[in-house]
Amino acid sequence: MDPATDPLTSDSTLPSRLRIGDWRVEPMANRLQREDEVRRLEPKVMEVLVTMARRPGETISRDEFMAEVWAGTIVTDDVLARCISELRKALGDSARSPEYIETIRKRGYRLIAPVRVPETPAPTAFVARPAASPVPASRPSPSPREARRDDLRQRKRTRARAFWIVGLAVLLGVGGFAAYRAFGDGLQPLGSVPVTSLPGVERDPALSPDGRMVAYAWDGGDGGAFNVYVQPASADASGQPRALTSGDADDHSPAWSPDGERVAFARCLPDGCNVFTTAADGSEEPRQLAVLERFQVRHLVWSPDGTRLAFAGRRGGSGAFGLHLLPLDGGPPQRLTAPPATYPGDLYPAFGPEGDRLAFVRTALDGRQDVCTVPVDGGTVTRHVLEQKGVTGLDWSTDGKEIVYAANREGTAGLWSVEVAGGRPRWIALGTDIGEVSEPSIADAARGLVFAQRLSRTQIVGLYRDGQPEPVISSTREDTQPDVSPDGERIAFVSTRSGAHEVWVADRDGRSPRPLTSFGGPRVSTPRWAPGSERIVFAARQDGAQADLFVIEPDGEIRRLTDAPGDEVAPSWSRDGEWVYFASPRARNGMWQIYRVPAQGGEAQVVTRYGGVAAMEASDGALLVVRPDRRGLYRLPPGPDGVARDNNVTRLRANVAPADWSNWMVDGVWAYVLERHVDGTAAVVRVETVSSEREVLARLDGIPDQPGLAVMPGGERIFVTQVERGDSDIAYVPDF
What is the pTM of this model? Predict the structure, then answer.
């Protein structure tokens, strides 16, 4: 074969598929797969891998990589090392005992895993072929060279057919990613039409049972109080928005009665929320159904038999949301789920068509989200989908066989469905560019769906004492969980600006942001600088289920620090940088405790006995701990061996909720904490770690559930994550 057409030896083409060790590699898709594991690579990282695959077992120098991968491009000296680090991470390889990529000191790198190009069957939908003649039994098996030659010929023919397929798709007008996905999956994209285009925020859409009307909450376009409105589901239908409520309270979360005659909603004031109902045609004043003192209420939904409401709620300004059932006969609300107090909790309840189950979204300690169901009479919570990224609402299909939910998965923000009986999520193709999708609502007796197109995002702001917050790190995506290096020169943070949650770093003023990780999907959280300002520890769910700790070394190499069963989250460094503290439920009873592990790796040691979900060392060697079961910040003095243990615990004057385990920081003799109030506002407070002297530094609002808090050394400036308010509209899918 001419080397110029060989997919492994050609410099100008990438093979469409090959195998390297246990991994199936798809260079054109920047994808690795091993059984159910899928890893995605940046294009240049994939090109580095293919460059080595073309010369397996040979040492390739830096200059050769530069000539083949970065020809005509000026790059920094560490770009190759970073690509190799990303490859090792994706392949599950180790630099110390490599199975895939070996470093040849002062010379380069070589691929030591076996490489082969698998046979690709012809796509019978596009090519009609006569049946092959049977092979005589006496014919000898082809030699390895002949087999490889035949395989490469087959791949060449497959590539040619692929060009015809792509050309046909273009001629048919199948353009853009959404159409590509729909074409590949055999789906027809669903058309959506706008329902609202009002200024401000329209949220909480609820489609009437007959699919003709939609109820929603709107802030009037001026950032004021929300009120409940109804209007026809189609923007082309006659009729204007009709206000069902008015006033200074926030009215939201409308829910239709099964007959479509009434709308229930939550009315919230600074001291809590109550539940009201009113006629859907606006012919009467709202009347109160229930008083829920000091309750925060979200996402009301009416049961199919009309006897009760379900909602997500919690008492006070913090803690975990749980699902509650509210009887309409005047009885008190009944708690259905009780996630750990450290979790954001359970949101977006939706009754199944039979009314016997609720689907909902459970958000775990570090932000991982699961799509779950639970019987309404109580029982075991069943997880149907484990997601890494934002799940922003769900509903049941009309036949009750599927759950439709909004999420950002595989780099695509949109709608997905999963069969309740089991199976993998299926992407639902929408034929228009609708941006971020949230809060889907499906009509009970008609083919229709509405959803909100949400445009708000989070940004990192800095503030001085009693000053106004000013944006420091902002993008069109989510920026959160800041941490300032001990030398005060850099800020590490988590961002989705590359399409996935990754660790980024920027200068102290937010300039020159750049990514430090490229996991390409798994959720990462809580980056924390080491005392020397050279290393960063963070938690990540690289395998999609279990959270482990990783360390970013000064040269950019990412090293796994923990790999024990169970989650390890909320890392922090000891003052000398020799240990990393973390929280884990690995104990037999499943209780969250604080552990510490040598910074270079090794066996973890349990530190607490009475629980902990986050810990940091104070300047005098004491350990400050957030408990999983109660409010407060607890001080554990160092023991005779220098290790702090909870034998003599004192409580500092800091009202930290378990769910705010990431919203505090130690700087010198002070602990800076975020305290939430029931009215949705928050305060930044500092507490002296020995005397418990307390001072309120700033008050602010717009704080999401898990922002993270950081402090410039010396306390001169505080960084928090804040929601940047944006518009949102409602769209309708008539033929869902």
Answer: 0.61
